[in-house]
Design brief:
Blueprint lengths: L16 H34 L2 E2 L9 E2 L3 H7 L2 H32 L6 H8 L1 H4 L2 H11 L7 H7 L18 H24 L3 H9 L4 H29 L3 H6 L11 H10 L4 H30 L1
Length: 307
Amino acid sequence: MMLEVSPPDTVAAPRFPRLRALLEPWVYLSPTLVLIGLFIFVPMAIGISYAFQNIQLLNPFDTGWVGLDNFRTMFDDRHFYAALRHTFNWTLTSLVLQFALGLGLALLLNREFPGRRWVQALVFLPWAVPAFLSGLTWAWLLNPVIGVLPYWLTDLHIISEPYNILSDPQLALYGPVVANVWFGIPFFAITLLAALQSIPKDLYEAAAMDGATGWQQFCKVTLPFLAPMIAITVMLRTIWIANFADLIVVMTDGGPANSTSILSSFIFTTAYRKLDFGYASAMAVFLLVLMTFYALVLLRIRHQLLK
């Protein structure tokens, strides 16, 4: 007696396999994309729309769409141009000093020496301090009544007598710059140290065997490998510094005589003290466009460096 063996069940091939393969990753990403849209892009769109409206809480009955009027007011406002000029000064000075000192610190920490891990912990400490507390501490240090820095600056013949430079319109901006440099050095030190540790040691050994000096090794081996990381860190830090109003608000509040007012602090003052959200949003949109253009340029440069 022969047993009948039924043929194995065949699994039907999925319909539209290419479409399914194309859509499957987006299905997995959809929860994240929804959250990003709700918490980033929707508020951004609402904020951009405010730039084309008249929204003054002190004049609630005169609201509505005004088109480009806020932008026309912005480009006719001398305080806006002063804040823009201070923003370039604040960002460039802070960025150059943070990068130079951070790179030097990363090169130092890349070498073996006793107690290096303790030094690393101390170096990264400023990054963990809240910006408000950092600004308050530096404001106290620059105060000649309770701080020592004015007396040190006098002994170094940088200033003629001990006084609070935060009250000097010519020097006030450099108080927050010093605090910002102290606050931002760890970012460059951390990222550049990680990039330095990824460079193969064989390249340095080969360069030394070819008779390259330490400076030549730095220029021909270290910098080419660091260049892509430098481009991305400079881009990120520039955007953060340009939008970083905390130290200025705490230390000088934009004064004296608006000599330390940058765009981000001017936007804060316009929105939350003058309660003019339309004009503040117009300046914020201008800053967004400016930083987006800058980021695209830096990303293009980084792409060329990676080739």
